[in-house]
Amino acid sequence: MFEISGFDTAGVVSLKRLSLAAALKKARELVEDGCWDVQVVDPTGRVHIPFEEQAA
Questions:
Q1: Which of 12, 56, 18, 20 is nearest to 38 (CA)?
Q2: Confidence (pLDDT) at 51
Q3: DSSP code per residue over the chain
Q4: Could you give phi then psi for residue 46, rounded to 5 degrees?
Q5: Residue 5 burial (CB count, 10 A)
Q6: What is the pLDDT of residues 2-56, one digit of tens each?
Q7: Which one, 8, 9, 15, 21, has least CB within 10 Å?
Q8: Nearest alpha-carbon partner for 14 in 25, 28, 30
């Protein structure tokens, strides 16, 4: 299970998706909706950022 987390004006956002592709898609949607500090953590603990090219 891939965990998506971030923040919005109401507080913490925490979601789960079965695949990396689905998790990254949802994470991008959250960023586009104004959430910040959005990240995806895979089952091994590796952190994925929805727009990795912007994080560099």
A1: 12
A2: 66
A3: -EEEEEEETTEEEEEEESSHHHHHHHHHHHHHTT-EEEEEE-TTS-EE-TTHHHH-
A4: -70, 135
A5: 18
A6: 999 999 999 999 999 999 999 999 999 999 999 999 999 999 999 988 765 444 4
A7: 9
A8: 30
**Torsion region of 24: left, alpha or beta (phi above 0 gives left; psi -120 to 50 gives alpha):** alpha
pTM (2 d.p.): 0.83
Quick one: tokens of 35?
A: 């959430």
Task: State the amino acid at position 23 in one-letter form.
Answer: A
In the structure encoding, which two tokens stand for residue 50, read together?
Answer: 């929805």
Tokens 């004006």 belong to residue? 9
> Which residue is it, tokens 């090219």?
53
